[in-house]
Design brief:
Layout: H1 12-23, H2 33-49, H3 53-66, H4 70-86, H5 90-111, H6 114-130, H7 134-147, H8 154-171, H9 179-195, H10 198-213, H11 218-232, H12 237-252, H13 257-273, H14 277-293, H15 297-313, H16 320-332, H17 336-345, H18 356-371, H19 376-389
Length: 393
């Protein structure tokens, strides 16, 4: 029998839900493996929703090994992928999602279960967005559109609209999004409100906030995040942490050190509690910025390098959050060649884009660094200055 993990750190309501679900195993007769697995899968779902992703995957894997049902195994892989994605472990989430889709296609041939296939396509689309694979995401959306008319479940249809919003973000590389992003986000929000589901509504508000953030509409962005916080009530650590970290980023882009520090401290606690390594990298990035702005450059460099290593490992498209504070430190330390190596990464097509004047300064520094010029300091000063003027440092 699969034992329940320690859930004492969760809210009282979450503990009650999980324990009540787990007790249902006692109501299942001996030898009823499918029924036991159904109970365990529900427990795993509740654990995952509570932010206990590692523990939920233990349950999903336990059921996967025991099951002989192709559809069930594909569904479990889909949930494992979603769990990895919730911890921002993008690469493994993307790999598992493709495995789930392959298995689900085989199951679909036998069962013609369009809703299950559609949900798997959705999770695969999520994973490919976070893995910064725009071509694959476009392919998946095209396939999802072909099945969309046959989907009656509004919650499933909503997830498709969310994928479309992610595609807008990736297509524009998170920079000065077109009005289309807001229009679509508002439409998605109205549909979400009709569900009266706290998580669905919080997701919609958070997604809309993210769109406003990358249009540099910071006040509106934070108002949307605030509503998301009201619905979340410290549930769904993945979404909660996303909103907290990017609330800090919104203050950072307005050069508000004290509020950036406040939200960084809040997000640091949740990132550590949920063991979200990728977002711990972003927390380090914000700590680096705070210390760089206060000229605590030794701490700033240490935090920036920690954040950089994590964000690079996870291929986080917001790598710039680490790099610009680090460039300031390297400039002060006259480490111009090292700075050139970090600067060179900023224009990678999988990363967030910047205003054209900043792109030009980064490109000029790159050219000088590649040529081995001895006046790198001037180019580096230009990059750091322009990053400050454009609110990216």
């Amino acid at each position: 029998m699969k034992l329940l993990p320690d859930i004492s750190g969760l809210s009282a309501d979450a503990q009650t839900l999980i324990r009540n679900s787990y007790r249902q195993i006692g109501e299942v007769g001996d030898g009823e493996l499918d029924e036991v697995n159904a109970v365990l899968e529900n427990v795993a779902d509740l654990l995952d929703q509570s932010g206990m992703h590692n523990e939920s995957r233990d349950f999903y894997n336990h059921i996967y090994i025991q099951s002989n049902d192709l559809l069930a195994k594909a569904r479990l892989l889909r949930k494992i992928s979603a769990s990895f994605n919730a911890q921002r472990e993008y690469q493994i989430a993307q790999q598992v999602s493709e495995e789930a889709l392959l298995l689900m296609r085989q199951a679909h041939i036998l069962t013609e279960n369009i809703p299950e296939l559609f949900e798997t396509l959705t999770v695969c689309a999520y994973a490919n967005y976070f893995a910064s694979k725009p071509k694959r995401l476009h392919q998946l959306i095209a396939e999802m559109r072909s099945y969309f008319p046959g989907i009656s479940d509004q919650s499933v249809r909503l997830r498709f609209y969310f994928v479309v919003m992610l595609n807008i973000l990736l297509r524009n590389r998170w920079y000065m999004l077109p009005e289309e992003a807001i229009t679509h986000g508002e439409f998605y929000l109205q549909l979400a409100l009709e569900t009266k589901n706290w998580n669905t509504i919080a997701t919609a508000y958070s997604g809309l906030a993210f769109c406003h953030l990358w249009r540099e509409e910071f006040e509106v962005c934070r108002k949307k995040f605030e509503v998301a916080f009201d619905y979340l009530q410290n549930r769904n650590y993945d979404l909660l942490l996303t909103a907290q970290v990017y609330t800090a980023v919104s203050f950072r882009m307005q050069n508000n050190i004290s509020m950036t520090e406040r939200w960084t401290a809040i997000s640091k606690e949740v990132a550590e509690k949920s063991n979200n390594i990728n977002y711990q990298g972003l927390v380090y990035a914000n700590l680096a910025w705070i210390n760089a702005k206060r000229n605590n450059l030794l701490y700033a460099e240490e935090f920036a390098k920690k954040g950089f290593e994590i964000c690079l490992t996870f291929r986080n498209p917001m790598l710039y959050l680490c790099i610009f504070p680090l460039l300031k430190c390297l400039l002060k330390g006259s480490q111009y060649d090292d700075a050139g190596g970090y600067n060179f990464l900023l224009l990678h097509p999988s990363l967030k884009s910047f205003p054209e004047p900043l792109n030009e300064k980064i490109s000029a520094m790159n050219a000088a660094w590649v040529e081995g010029r001895n006046d790198l300091r001037c180019y580096l000063e230009d990059v750091v200055t322009e990053a400050e003027l454009s609110n990216y440092f």
